[in-house]
């Protein structure tokens, strides 16, 4: 029935109750304490909805563990939920290049990262991501050197991030793109989508098409959080 379709909220499942069930049963009981603390701290901030959903975070943590990631890139940090999750998951000598022009938001989460003793793994770069990724690619040592990348930033640039990250990742490296279902709007006619979602919807639809047509990667889109597309670099 039309009235049962999800609206623009996080969680793409058929009901809020089912989403809450997954969170309460599988996600919150296993969420590390520092992540709970950061989530609580972020809840009162403007833009709190932007924080990576904890169910999506759990999948990212699992992927990092499966591939034994040590060297990662994060585009879009906000207060640092996904960054802290990555820092807690990779080994003590692992490194994360984390890029975001908003240092103020990063500094909200920083005390939690310090308390969790993972700050030494984080290289936070206060900048828009494209020039940083381009600069990284000027150094041939960076090419094919990263195990993992997580992109959760300005949707309009996902295509541009993808081209750069493909070069920075190792063959078999994993990249994960957040919001690839853009609050469910990708499957709805534009006329039924609120204005504030329309630009992101168009960018996301184009991005999803380009990933599906990219022979260099294997992909899977999972309806966790706001939609995650997981890609493996094949060559
Ligand atoms: C959805 S939030 C990231 C959420 C974060 N992953 C978390 O777990 O809380 C998006 C972030 O992208 C950042 N951003 C926007 N434009 C950007 C750009 N051009 N380069 C890098 N980050 C950008 C914003 O400042 C914002 O902090
Ligand atoms: O409502 C949002 C908005 C964003 C967003 C907007 C503009 C940018 O330059 C970056 C991000 O991101 C979100 C997001 O990642 C999410 O999971 C939910 C909501 C939003």
Automatic annotation (TrEMBL):
Keyword Cell cycle: no
One Pfam match: Methyltransf_3
Record GO terms (molecular function): caffeoyl-CoA O-methyltransferase activity; S-adenosylmethionine-dependent methyltransferase activity
UniProt keyword Transcription regulation present: no
Entries under PROSITE patterns matching the protein: SAM_OMT_I
Bilayer-crossing regions: none
Enzyme nomenclature, EC number: 2.1.1.104
Biological processes per GO annotation: lignin biosynthetic process; methylation
Stored SUPFAM superfamilies: S-adenosyl-L-methionine-dependent methyltransferases (SSF53335)
The family this protein is said to belong to: Belongs to the class I-like SAM-binding methyltransferase superfamily. Cation-dependent O-methyltransferase family.
Name of protein: Caffeoyl-CoA O-methyltransferase
Organism encoding this protein: Helianthus annuus (Common sunflower)
């Amino acid at each position: 029935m039309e009235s049962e379709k999800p609206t623009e909220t996080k969680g793409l499942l058929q009901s809020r109750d089912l989403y809450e069930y997954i969170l309460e049963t599988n996600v919150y009981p296993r969420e590390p304490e520092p992540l709970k603390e950061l989530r609580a701290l972020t809840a009162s901030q403007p833009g709190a909805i932007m924080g990576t959903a904890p169910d999506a975070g759990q999948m990212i943590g699992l992927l990092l563990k499966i591939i034994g990631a040590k060297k990662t890139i994060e585009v879009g940090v906000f207060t640092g939920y996904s960054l802290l999750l990555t820092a807690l998951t990779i080994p003590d000598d692992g490194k994360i290049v984390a890029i975001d022009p908003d240092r103020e938001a990063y500094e909200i989460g920083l005390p939690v990262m310090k308390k969790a003793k993972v700050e030494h793994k984080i290289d936070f770069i206060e900048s828009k991501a494209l020039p940083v990724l381009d600069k990284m690619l000027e150094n041939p040592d960076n090419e094919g050197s990263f195990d993992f990348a997580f992109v959760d930033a300005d949707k309009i640039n996902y295509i541009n991030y993808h081209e750069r990250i493909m070069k920075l990742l190792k063959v078999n490296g994993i990249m994960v793109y957040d919001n690839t279902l853009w609050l469910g709007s990708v499957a709805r006619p534009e006329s039924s989508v609120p204005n504030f979602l329309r630009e992101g919807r168009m960018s996301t639809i184009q991005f999803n098409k380009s990933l599906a047509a990219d022979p260099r990667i294997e992909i899977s889109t999972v309806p966790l959080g706001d939609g995650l597309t997981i890609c493996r670099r094949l060559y």
